[in-house]
Amino acid sequence: MSDRDEELFRLQETLYESKNPTRRWLHRSRRDWIVAAINRWGAGARRSLEIGPGSGVYLPALAAVASEVVGMDIEDAYLDHLRPIEQDHSHLRLVHDDILGSSFPDDYFDLILCSEVIEHIADSRRAFAEMRRLLAPSGVLILSTPQKYSPLELSSKVAFLPGVIDVVRWIYKEPILETGHINLMTKSEVRRQLEQAGFTILETDISGVYIPGVAELLGHRALRIEQGLEGRMRNTRLEGLLWTQFAIATVASDS
Shortest CA distance to 209 belongs to which of 72, 26, 64? Predict the structure, then answer.
């Protein structure tokens, strides 16, 4: 495993326990939303799939609701890191597979989770089409991805400039890596691509306020400000500045 892979795993594992209140809240609130969605929509699922399980934070939740769970990734090093979780759940399989051309048959999964993955895939239309192929007619897709114009995504482009990244790492004193986000989309673009792939949107949500500089300097005071702003920004013209968008979708009846 490369040094970068090791650092990436450490980053994914520490985000939920970050010393920075805003960073910790952003990732915990997303995690809690996804786990709640798994419990709401996944109960009684025969087969569930997680695309790009990362640090494996959602695999136990999927294993609790589904009779069979598959974690799919194109990187064997990432899968190998999750083998201890696989050993703890006899009905969990970690497989090398690609959501741009999966080896699984049509209509195989009742529940598909794709959290913080689609922004790493240039051809998201093809990925959504493959998810549609894999999802059973009564199945559910749970999706989360960053919003294109959120301050967190925009400021990250500055944070990794030479010299600036050294200051950022000094402030956080935690693993800080480039996001690798190559396909950030607005809420309307995500909806358009899902519908074009043959999905019907059942539910959407948006969360997460990040104020650059303030989040790093004011600690818990910044978090209280950001949490207060989150509710006020929803369903307004400012909702595009919230960080994470969520969608629950099923197969369209006419597809």
Answer: 26
Which among 161, 204, 233 has a CA at the least distance from the CA of 225?
233
The continuous run of DSSP H or E covering 135 comes out as strand 135-146
Going by C-alpha positions, the residue among 59, 193, 49, 11 that lies closest to residue 118 is 193
| CA end-to-end distance (rounded Å), the chain | 42
Q: What is the CATH number of the domain that holds 220?
A: 3.40.50.150
Write down the pTM of the prediction.
0.92
Give the list of residues 6+ apart from residue 117 with CB closer than 8 angstroms, or none. Answer: 51, 52, 99, 145
If one compares 138 and 2, the residue with the highest pLDDT of the two is: 138
Residues spanned by the domain of 157: 3-251
HSE value, Cβ hemisphere, 13 Å, CA-based, for 122: 0
Tokens read off for 196: 């074009």
Q: Which residues pair with 49 in a beta bridge?
A: 70, 112
Rounded distance between C-alpha atoms, residue 204 and residue 199, angstroms: 13
Collapsed DSSP state (helix, strand, coil) of residue 242: coil
- Total domains in the chain come to 1
| 109 sits in which H/E element | strand 109-115
Structure tokens at 159: 């944070």
The three-state secondary structure class of 30 is helix
Instruction: List pLDDT tens digits, range 180-202.
Output: 789 999 999 999 999 999 999 99
